[in-house]
Amino acid sequence: GIQVEQSPPDLILQEGANSTLRCNFSDSVNNLQWFHQNPWGQLINLFYIPSGTKQNGRLSATTVATERYSLLYISSSQTTDSGVYFCAVATNSGYSTLTFGKGTMLLVSP
Amino acid sequence: GAGVSQTPSNKVTEKGKYVELRCDPISGHTALYWYRQSLGQGPEFLIYFQGTGAADDSGLPNDRFFAVRPEGSVSTLKIQRTERGDSAVYLCASSLSLAGEQFFGPGTRLTVL
């Protein structure tokens, strides 16, 4: 099956700093989503971005499908950004079931 | 409108017992997915429904696990003869269409003693 690798596995930031999270995947995809899992375990949708660039407030994401990677940018980080960020992809074959990476654990300190 | 809801939020059971976990998808979403998340890992796919039928159940770990969606809306994941290794958070997601954006419920945390 498709392989999804996220980096870095852990990240510690001071409040106000910027960061870039990366997701590499091993096959063509028709779905790519970024999620933030909050401390209560809820997966919050950040971006649905199988290709192109999107922005939502302090967050933006870019997927380069031909090179099989996606980037999530967090600017001016806040303590509430802490949590685990997951990248998940679905391949062009099959039923669009998502394969998740292992996540990036982000801690933003005041 | 309401998001995906799951009940119960927590379930504690004893080894060998039977459990049922319920998922209410977003109204109008035809695609419904079940995933399982173990501590420190990303969610892993279990089963996918398109309408009433299970289109892909390749992620179910063994025949103790079964899921239904009789009317194409609410789904129930059923686990027979529970084992301690079944302890995990069970997540349900729905999407408007195939390859569409998936939205997740809050999950059911299952603990098998």
Question: What are the salient characteristics of this protein?
Answer:
heterodimer; A: about 110 residues; mainly beta; Immunoglobulin-like; 11 strands; globular; B: about 110 residues; seven-stranded mixed sheet; four-stranded antiparallel sheet
Count of DSSP helices of chain B? 0
CATH superfamily of chain A: Immunoglobulins
Give the count of structural domains of chain A: 1
N→C terminal distance of chain A? 40 Å
What structural category arises from helix and sheet content of chain A?
mainly beta
Total strand segments of chain A: 11
How would you explain this protein's 3D organization?
The complex is a heterodimer of chains A (110) and B (113). Chain A has a single domain, classed as Immunoglobulin-like, CATH 2.60.40. Chain A is built from no helices and eleven strands. Chain A is mainly beta and 110 residues long. Helices cover 0% and strands 59% of the residues of chain A. In chain A, strands 2, 4, 5, 9, 10 and 11 form a six-stranded mixed β-sheet that branches. Chain A has a five-stranded antiparallel β-sheet with strand order 1-3-8-7-6, with no helix packed on it. Chain B starts with a strand and ends with a strand. In chain B, strands 2, 4, 5, 6, 9, 10 and 11 form a seven-stranded mixed β-sheet that branches. Chain B has a four-stranded antiparallel β-sheet with strand order 1-3-8-7, with no helix packed on it. Chain B has strands at 5-7, 10-13, 19-24, 31-37, 44-50, 53-56, 65-68, 75-79, 88-95, 103-104, 108-112. Chain B is built from no helices and eleven strands. With 113 residues, chain B is an all-beta fold. The chains are: A mainly beta (110), B mainly beta (113). At the A-B interface, strand 4, strand 5, strand 9 and strand 10 of A face strand 4, strand 5, strand 9 and strand 10 of B.
